[in-house]
TrEMBL record:
InterPro entries: Bact_response_regulator, CheY-like_superfamily, Sig_transdc_resp-reg_receiver. Residues 161-188 form a coiled coil. Keywords: Coiled coil, Phosphoprotein. It comes from Streptomyces monticola. Pfam families: Response_reg (PF00072). The modification 4-aspartylphosphate is found at residue 55. This is Two-component system response regulator. It comes from the Bacteria.
């Protein structure tokens, strides 16, 4: 069963959170509420999120300050942030948003369809990254365990490589389709860059598998880093 991605919604107004939930419910992911910057930072201590929708104008810690804290933490600095704002944002506010690390800066009222489409792209990228980490972890376990399966049986090397290759191929196919979709839709540069990073990691993992094929050399290959 595929685990759902978590989306963090940060706004001090309950009616705005309710509206965001109504817009994003069609994505069938886990929506987590936070009514302040402090509450958002607390949620980020324990959970992993695919994307953060962050209101700019909040009492106490505003959206810019909250984003700065998020980007300073190693655990959370790579989570995409979409700023939502009701203030009359000129170039200065837009610049502050991107300088704080946001991938997008959207004014209220916004088009629900556009917001849902933007969020769905980052959810897909997050899911593909999760699949890639699972495949890399499986490869490490198989290499360290000398080809043993989860139940302790030893598989033939050819069968093991074929299984791992097939699983990786499925992820590669989905990542390629997502990249084509981003190109067709003229998506945000941040989303395109994230997809390209995912493809580079897939290429590294494929090379590691290919190095295990008979006749390609001896010794265990290094598995690509997930950073």
């Amino acid at each position: 069963m595929v685990q759902k991605a978590k989306i963090l919604l940060v706004d001090d107004r309950p009616e705005n959170l309710l509206a965001l939930e109504a817009i994003l419910s069609a994505l069938d992911q886990t929506l987590v509420r936070a009514s302040s910057g402090e509450e958002a930072l607390k949620a980020l201590l324990t959970d992993d999120f695919a994307v953060i929708l962050l209101d700019v104008q909040m009492p106490g810690m505003d959206g810019f300050e909250t984003a700065a804290h998020i980007k300073r933490r190693e655990r959370t600095r790579d989570i995409p942030i979409i700023f939502l704002t009701a203030i009359n944002h000129g170039p200065h506010h837009t610049f502050r948003g991107y300088a704080a690390g946001a991938v997008d800066y959207i004014s209220k009222p916004f088009d629900p369809w556009v917001l849902r489409a933007k969020v769905s792209v980052f959810v897909e990228l997050y899911m593909k990254n999760c699949q890639l980490r699972e495949q890399a972890a499986l490869l490490r376990l198989q290499l360290e365990g000398g080809g043993k399966s989860a139940v302790g049986d030893t598989k033939e090397p050819a069968g093991l490589l074929a299984e791992l290759s097939a699983r990786l191929a499925a992820v590669e196919e989905q990542a390629e389709a997502l990249s084509k979709q981003l190109d067709d839709d003229s998506a945000d540069a941040a989303a395109v860059a994230t997809a390209a990073h995912l493809e580079r990691k897939l290429t590294g993992l494929r090379r590691a598998l290919d190095a295990l094929e008979p006749g390609t050399g001896s010794g265990a290959p290094s598995v690509p880093s997930q950073n």
